[in-house]
Amino acid sequence: MIRYPNDSEPDRWVRVFALVVTIATALVSGYFMIAGLVDPGGLMPGGDTSAARTYAGYAAARGLILLGATLWFALARAWARLGLMLALNGAVQVLDTVVGAVNHDVAKTVGPASFAVALLLAAVWLGRPPNAVRRRHPGGPASRRRRSAPARRR
Predict the structure, then answer these.
(1) Residue 122: how many CB atoms within 10 A of its CB?
(2) Distance CA 126, CA 140 (A)
(3) What is the pLDDT of residues 66-89, one digit of tens each?
(4) Could you tell me if residue 96 is inside a domain?
């Protein structure tokens, strides 16, 4: 596949941030996915029932697809698609935050909230045109205009 320079490719720092968030999400979510399958009672008191194991299996199947697609788009450098997956994962983390708050569990509220902020920020930044942040601030590189030298008279 021939790749040409693409003016719509996000800035390098945005790509790096999105990749770091993607990898961190995959590691943490993957850990909880495997832990839920291996020992559901270790994550939730009373979680050793067959219903809990079945629920953990369903959650792992869904999580595997979401995380797999997210990692695939990151490796393929499909930035727009990665942004969509990060937004979807961010929405899941927002809902996980609500569940943690309803259950008055600080760890299950703050953790997902932190990931939600990082995921949604990465998604928004991936969706912006390159250098959009620098263009908006006065005095930034894009706001400086080159002034041409005055024409010489003969």
Answers:
(1) 26
(2) 20
(3) 889 999 999 999 999 999 999 999
(4) yes
